[in-house]
Structures are given as C-alpha cells and as structure tokens.
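Dear colleague,

Thank you for sharing your sequence with our group. We've completed the structure prediction you requested, and as agreed, I am returning the results in plain text so they can be pasted directly into your records. Please verify that the sequence below matches your submission; if there's any discrepancy, let me know and we will rerun it promptly.
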Amino acid sequence: MSKQAILESVGAAYMKDDLPDIKPGDTVKAHVKVREGGKERIQIFEGVCIATNNGGVAKNVVLRKMSSGVGVERCFPVHSPNVAKFEVTRKGRVRRAKLYYLRDRVGKAARIREKR
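Please find the predicted structure tokens below.
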C-alpha cells in the first residue's frame, strides 16, 4: 500500500459528505461555530469565494466580503468540525480559478455576473 493510499484512508473518516459544490465566483454563507466563554453559538460569514485550495481533507475555501468599507477575507477548512455548514446563495460566472483581482476593485467594478 502506498503512502498516498494510507493518507487517504485515514482522512476519509473526517471528510464531510453533505457539502455543496463551491466554486470561485459563488456567494457562500459559512456557518461557523464560535466559542465564547462556556457558550457556543453559530456565526454566519457570507462572502464571495475567491479561491479554493488543495483537495481531500485539507481542502480550503477563501471567502471575501466588504464589512463597513473594509475588505475581509477568511480561509475556511471545508472539512473542519468548527464549520457547521456551507450554503451557496448565488452562482457566479467567472473565467478564472483565483479571483485575487477583486481585492483591487471597489463598488460596481467588483461585481460578478450570475450564472443563469
């Protein structure tokens, strides 16, 4: 058995199977579990997916949103137990895999067309 096969078999136990198909350009809501003191609540981060990294258990999604005029980016491990769920609210039509050019754009220039 190769090292790759061993790693995949170990990681398969931690992978979620109820995930939506998240692609760059999509507007996504990430429901994140936040612990404050002894309490736990769910906080929603909604933003545009500007990149997806890796595959398998280590898959990450980078979401970007504007919060009171300041750009905020967060990287979410897709299979993390701290992320309750992902929800795709809008499908975007883009021609790139990484949308880092959105960092330089403001207002209407930062819009992404919707897939019909």
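Summary note from our side: Residues 3-11 form the longest helix (9 residues).

Kind regards,
the structure core
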